[in-house]
Amino acid sequence: MTPLRTASRSLTRALVLIGALLVGLAPALPAHAEPTLPEIESQIAKEWNQLEPLIEEYNKVHGELKKLQKKAAALDAKLQPLRMTVEVTRTRVGVIAAEYYKGGRNTEVNALLASGSPQQFAEQLMILQQIAHGKQEQISATSEAKAKFDVEKAALDKAIADQKAKDEEMAKKKQAIEADMSKLQALRLKAYGSGAPGGSYKIGSLCPATAIGGKGQTAATWACKQIGKSYVYGADGPDHFDCSGLTQWAWAKAGVSLSHYTKAQWGEGTRVSTPQTGDLVFFYPNDGLHHVGMYVGTVNGRRVMVHAPHTGDVVRMAYIDTMPLAGYVRPS
Questions:
Q1: Domain named NlpC/P60: which ranges (predicted)?
Q2: For the residues of 1-19, what is the DSSP string, one character each?
Q3: How far is CA 129 from CA 93, 118, 135, in A?
Q4: In 3D, which of 232, 236, 254 has the Cα closest to residue 245?
């Protein structure tokens, strides 16, 4: 073998050895790992904890606007008869006044001749004056009542205008909320495919799990019947629900009216430490009290509820101890 060929082979072996050493020393590039299901659930919980207070604020603003509009409609219904009474009464008095004064003394003479005697004329004149006086009093009383309603309606109209402005502001936030919710939905579909997120809709075989009778039982039974229906924020049934919309709708079936707003429902009953079937259960005391469900009994020694969890999910049973508990309220 020639010295040139020997040197070439030695150089090749050296380059291969150096390459192998460089490969060994180079840091390995991390492979892109897909998030695990627990990581996705944690991300959803974190983002939803920021979104749900906005949704509940939307419910509050929209609910207050509807109440004001309903109050305005009722007030306007009261004003309409008053308006008519004032106009009719004024017209009648105007006719009386015109008939009495248009002829001057000729009216008195004609009345005297028609009456047949001065006494009858005096009586007729007195009756005419009494009628006119009574009508004037009626006008005055009606006008005062109408003025009172007008002042109240003006204040109500202003309140409605202010509330509509808030409603429009929330409508702008709605676009951002919907965009974020679409991202959450995409995460859920990626995690669960077309199957049910979060496992089975029910815990145990019965819902309500504990029967007590009464209005609480009625409300809980209706809440249980909604299991499987989709979560839609701002919805209060009968096909879609958000958390406070579900509890409002179910308790309405028991004849009890609740607001479509979690914080309002917190004050629409009696606080209790030991829940009964149908009681409302509230969560996130340190984050604005923005979620509510309905207690339906115990399964395997753990308290369970029916609730509308969040976007991408459905009405379902869940263990109460999976979220930060604020307390229980028994609607009244």
A1: 209-332
A2: --HHHHHHHHHHHHHHHHH
A3: 11, 16, 10
A4: 236
Residue 290 annotated among the catalytic residues of the structure: no
Cα 103 to Cα 64, 84, 100, 215, 317: the distances in Å are: 59, 30, 7, 74, 86
Beta pairing partners, 295: 305
Residue 305's H or E segment, with its range, is strand 302-307
Which residue carries 């808030």 as its tokens? 166
Report the mean per-residue pLDDT for the chain.
76
Structure tokens at 154: 């003006």
Quote the pTM value: 0.60
**Which amino acid makes up residue 109?**
V
User: Which residue blocks in the chain are alpha helix, DSSP H?
Assistant: 3-25, 37-101, 105-115, 118-192, 214-224, 243-252, 262-266
In the set 243, 260, 290, 310, the catalytic residue is 243
> Residue 208: is the preceding peptide bond cis (ω within 30°)?
yes
> In sequence order, what are the beta bridge partners of 314?
230
User: For residues 190 and 253, is the Cβ–Cβ distance under 8 A?
Assistant: no
CA 6 to the chain's CA centroid: 87
Nearest to 238 by CA among 253, 256, 226, 254: 226
Which tens digit of pLDDT belongs to each residue from 51-67? 778 778 777 777 777 78
Element (H or E) spanning 295, and its range?
Answer: strand 291-299
Strand order in the sheet with 302-307: 269-272, 325-331, 280-283, 291-299, 302-307, 316-319
CA-CA distance, 17 to 11, in Å (whole number)? 10
Given the structure tokens 């509308």, which residue do they identify? Answer: 308
Catalytic residue check, 207: no
Q: Which is catalytic among the residues 62, 240, 260, 291?
A: 291
Catalytic residue (one of 260, 290, 307, 310): 307
Q: Is 307 a catalytic residue?
A: yes
For residue 314, what is the DSSP state? Answer: B
Average pLDDT over every residue of 10-20:
45
